[in-house]
Description:
Elements: E1 5-11, H1 14-26, E2 31-33, H2 36-41, E3 52-57, H3 61-81, H4 88-91, E4 103-108, H5 110-120, E5 127-133, E6 139-140
Antiparallel strand pairs: 1-3, 2-3, 4-5, 5-6
Amino acid sequence: MENKIITLSVENDLTSAYLIKGLLEENGIECFVANENVTTANPLYTNAVGGIPVEIREQDREEALAIIARNKLDVLAADNEEEEEPDTETSEIICPKCGSNNVRKEKFSIAAIALSTLLIGLPIPFLKRKCHCFNCQNEWK
């Protein structure tokens, strides 16, 4: 059987092309990235040469497309599984003046950071242990 080479996908950057290449090679499909020397020498040439193609054998096309589709589904499933942790700093603190939970605990003093930047040229984060209520504008420690 003839081993005709076809373009599986055309990428805009070398990193994406190598990620696809690594995924395919991990699953036993031989492939290569074309035009990599041209785009490595000058990334602005990527559009001039028509992108960065990932080349495979024609007989591996269906399997390669299935592998890429399965990988995309795995990535989407992993993203959905990651849940954002609730902000414990704002949800547990209650304003003693108005009883609101619309409160933020300030970690750093913005004024001290600005002053240290002006005096020594480096921003030094000085800790600030104050809480601020957005409803009544109350500040406390």
